[in-house]
Request: fold
Amino acid sequence: MRPIAGAAPPLTAPSPPFAAIIPPLTDRSFPAAPPETSFAPMSNVLFLGLPSHGHINPTLGLVSELVRRGERVVYFASPAFKNDLERAGAEVRFYGADLDLFTQKGKILDFLSEADHLIGDMLEQIEDETFEYIVHSAAFPFAGAVQQILQVPNISSLAVFAGLNAFLEKPLDDLTREAYANLKRHLNKKYAVTLPDNPYALLFNTGVVNLVYTSKYFAAPLTDFDDTFKFVGPPVYDRGDHTGFPFERLQGKKVLYISLGTVFSQHNPGLYDVFTDAFAGWDGIVVMAAYNVGNVKAPDNFIVRPYVPQNQVLQRATAAITHAGMNSLNDLIHYEVPFVSLPMGADQPLLAKRAAELGATIVLDARTVTAEALKTATQRVVTDPDIKESLARIHGSFEEAGGYPWAVAEIFAAVKERAPQPRRPQQVQ
Reply:
């Protein structure tokens, strides 16, 4: 699709007002299935993913549900995600530049310098195609520019929802400010697009619908979103990539699952020694994910892998230790696995604090935690009935949120003519 001269402003939602007041969850009734809208015509959908597990993984189930409902999905990502995306049903294209912001250590100039080449390459790859709407990671930096060029509605997928304001208030150095001003002028002249004044706002792109992968009950004090933000529950999806894992070793055993995610897996390497010291005597099997950590010396009762099929392990888990990243927290609560939180950065401290406020976890300081403290906390989350009750309550709010079928219903209601508006039952006050 060729650039459109004189493109109109983006079809995005305004900055959300800070005014969300969420009633307490007092009803465990779940919504009826959303309408299938089978009469809505098939659409070509352009996905723009930020190449990071934390951002792409939540969209895999969304892709699968859209394809199941008859949509054709073209998904831009990096080669590392090709297999997962194709299994979900997407046609995969690759960006012409490295967009994994986490490998670039947060240097905003690194991806600003790639903007013109990356946008031009994408437009060239899709120049003979027409798309009815875009779905993008909220943090995909050029979502707004591409939307203005293509002139179609955009749907935003929020892998992160807590602490966004603090991120947007980060100060700019003179070099970044000047480079960004030059980029804004150049892209406006070439594509007739308008970028936000603050370059950090490129990492929070809203749309006509904004999908948040949690429940209102869990997110209430952490968000300030308007009604374009749809809380659709956790992104639980079986990626089908668990071949080769020794599940037979878990049969009939108490299973402790330990994961610090992907981005923060190397943040504090000494923690892996704490884990092995604490649970060498665990009466069962310890499954520990150690992504990009290298060789970890572990006792015989440990299974250590760079990648672990998390959902399948959690279905067998007795307890877990987590960095409290959004995706991991969602999975733990979905499977009602008692967990200890060791938040290390980004939104993790806020999420762990919220889970603790709801009585669902014990939070320890990852910088100072000892093996003994970790053992004690793990034993408590396993045996404390109040923690199990709190987990069940949040789990109920997740079920009430509706999942991927409701997310697709919200998308169709926003972008397809004659699609019925999704209606949820009112919560009992």
User: Anything to note?
Assistant: Confidence is low (pLDDT under 50) at residues 1-32, 425-429. The longest strand covers residues 72-77. The longest helix spans residues 174-191. The radius of gyration is 22 Å.
